[in-house]
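For the sake of transparency, this paper describes our internal protein records without simplification. Because each token names a local backbone shape, the row as a whole describes the fold. One such record is reproduced below, unchanged from the form in which we store it:
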Amino acid sequence: MTIRVVIVDDQAMVRAGFAALLSAQADIDVVGEAPDGRQGVRVSRSTHPDVVLMDVRMPEMDGLTAAREILDPPPGVVHLPKVLMLTTFDIDDYVYEALRAGASGFLLKDAPPADLIAAVRVVASGEALLAPSVTRRLIADFVQQRPAPRKDPALRLNGLTPRETEVLELIARGLSNQEIAGHLVLAEQTVKTHIGRVLAKLDLRDRAQAVIFAYEAGLVRPGDSA
């Protein structure tokens, strides 16, 4: 299956470079480009990509606002692509807010070409871009600095079974599916099933949002480790 990609960045050379690199892959097709967030939303709605590469800082409409519009569309818009944020900084306030809005992760703009290609494939497959341990550190830093109100997330935990709550906690502590399976003495496929149910019950898009939810609900706290 070919992965359809839209590139949104205000620098023409960046768009051209990313487009050339991705288009050279047999399984990736760049179906659109845009120089700002507003046009990025419009192009994404018309081309129905699987993945949108979205720069954080742009004129007209920044990447965060555009990501929110793409991931929380008005009634009648049914296509929801994955959004991968592009940033110059490894830790950026906008990145955290984008993850909360439903973005699947972030990638440094100066990352090696192989990383960009791998990131598109990972996000298209439905996984969060970041390795679990990296996600944990990133989100922990922000939650520690700006803790969010926890009443609502904590109440939503009541809808999970004890096993599902345990799996969510281990995700937030940075364990991979294989590590969770070993920790709980379960088959890896069973762990995947539990994760799917956790995401569905909590209305979360992916692993990155699950980590954020776990911190905001108080299930884990910055500095916790498995």
Observations:
- Residues 156 and 202 are 7 Å apart (CA to CA).
- The first strand starts at residue 3 and ends at 8.
- The chain has a mean pLDDT of 84.
- The two ends are 37 Å apart (CA to CA).
